[in-house]
């Protein structure tokens, strides 16, 4: 039996822009409170991130590699333009993020500066690799967000072959479905079900712009963690009064 997993929700570009103001940490914690306990991609960190850019947001386009098997390579790559990884790269449109599943393979770099440059030109927002990239210094020169587990000098044909494009994958221990909303910053990456984005933006705005700002202010004034993080009942009243006084209520 075949089980089809797909997203049926669409998210506007305007809402994606709002999500850029949310941190990965806040989004991850909010998802846990919403019942999604496994959304943060573990072990995958920024290896290249433009200076001055706070975050990147986009819709997931997925690509899957498996260990190379010699008798299938010619069949799989008989015509190079039809290889899944090139098809995936050339499919990128505005506000997409390419998410690559290599099975956490650490013995081949699947993305270098040439592929990165092409994806940036097509309007992609980031690349995430559950595995390795190559040509790190050249990738950094492209000035584009790239997250991965590490770096390896070998290219794809050394030990991997691409076999799947825009299908559900695993990345950093997280299930990623094409069309999931991916948020990345210098803390890593989180995969967000599209139907959760609007609520995350609302909750995170209240957290980041109000509570966190106020709590940090109070701690700088000498308030105790015991009373203000999280706010107890008395501090919550103080917080609500502060919101009214500062035009947030």
TrEMBL record:
Highest taxon of the lineage: Bacteria
Enzyme class, spelled out: lyase
Pfam families: RraA-like
Cofactor(s) for this UniProt protein: a divalent metal cation
Listed InterPro entries: RraA/RraA-like (IPR005493), RraA/RraA-like_sf (IPR036704)
E.C. no: 4.1.1.112, 4.1.3.17
Catalytic activity: 4-hydroxy-4-methyl-2-oxoglutarate = 2 pyruvate; oxaloacetate + H(+) = pyruvate + CO2
Role, per record: Catalyzes the aldol cleavage of 4-hydroxy-4-methyl-2-oxoglutarate (HMG) into 2 molecules of pyruvate. Also contains a secondary oxaloacetate (OAA) decarboxylase activity due to the common pyruvate enolate transition state formed following C-C bond cleavage in the retro-aldol and decarboxylation reactions.
Subunit structure: Homotrimer.
Family per similarity comment: Belongs to the class II aldolase/RraA-like family.
UniProt protein name: Putative 4-hydroxy-4-methyl-2-oxoglutarate aldolase
């Amino acid at each position: 039996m075949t089980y089809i997993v797909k997203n049926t929700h669409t998210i506007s570009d305007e809402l994606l822009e709002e999500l850029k103001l949310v941190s990965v940490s806040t989004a991850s914690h909010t998802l846990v409170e919403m019942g999604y306990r496994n959304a943060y991609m573990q072990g995958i960190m920024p290896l290249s991130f433009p200076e001055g850019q706070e975050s990147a947001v986009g819709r997931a386009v997925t690509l899957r590699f498996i260990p190379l098997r010699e008798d299938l390579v010619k069949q799989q790559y008989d015509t190079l333009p039809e290889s899944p990884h090139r098809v995936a790269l050339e499919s990128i449109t505005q506000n997409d993020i390419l998410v690559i599943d290599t099975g956490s393979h650490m013995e081949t770099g699947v993305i270098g500066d040439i592929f990165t440059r092409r994806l940036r030109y097509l309007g992609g927002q980031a690349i995430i690799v559950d595995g390795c990239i190559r040509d790190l210094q050249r990738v950094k020169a492209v000035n584009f967000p790239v997250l991965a587990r590490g770096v390896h000098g070998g290219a794809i044909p050394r030990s991997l072959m691409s076999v799947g494009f825009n299908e559900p994958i695993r990345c950093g221990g997280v299930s990623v479905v094409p069309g999931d909303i991916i948020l990345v910053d210098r803390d890593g990456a989180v995969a967000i079900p599209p139907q959760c984005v609007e609520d995350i933006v609302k909750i995170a705005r209240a957290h980041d712009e109000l509570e966190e700002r106020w709590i940090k202010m109070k701690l700088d004034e000498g308030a105790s963690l015991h009373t203000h993080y999280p706010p107890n009942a008395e501090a919550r009243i103080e917080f609500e009064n502060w919101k009214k006084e500062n035009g947030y209520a």
